[in-house]
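Handout, section B. The chain below has 216 residues.
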Amino acid sequence: MKTPAKFWDRVAKGYARKPVDDPQAYQKKLDQTQARFRPDMSVLEMGCGTGSTALLHAPHVGEYLATDISPAMIAIAEEKAAQENHANLRFQVSTAETAGHASKASFDAVLALNLLHLLDDPVGEITRIYGLIKPGGMFVSSTGCLADMKGLLVKVLPLMTFVGLAPRVQVMSSQQYVADIKAAGFDIEESWVQRDGRTVFVIARKPELAQDEPQS
């Protein structure tokens, strides 16, 4: 089995050419996220892939840092960005677990899109993300919850992962995933499932007086 970075490096060019699976759902996610953006916001996107979403979001905020584990994905993202003029947008090679690691409570928003189900410890990462966000800031995620699926895919996925045809995936349920976000301290503002029956989109808010902030 390949390491995650090598897997995504290998599929990067094909991934960049792949059309959006559900354009209507994707646009809804963009709209609901951008409706909450402000021109002065600092945003971290983890698992940005080839940068398509980052390029759409960056004009709506002050600073946008987009990270991905795959150098090949980031190279494609930077090629796209070179064709546009987004002085506030930076791309960076980083694992999800180290993205923004020196920036405790310094982001107004953290986005993890199609990412958390690919990590070894999604619950631990949600907790880490909570620490990266300023009080009152938001967490946006789109996550595959394969435990909600019925069919052959879940059964054959471990074999596909072993032979390098799929990345390693955590089998989570949407109910447990949303509960984990709440348990980390977030308040849920939006939560809905795409037509595929497995992809859960969540917008959550860190309280203004957050649990890890001292009271005056």
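Note. The first strand starts at residue 42 and ends at 46. Compare this with the example in section A.
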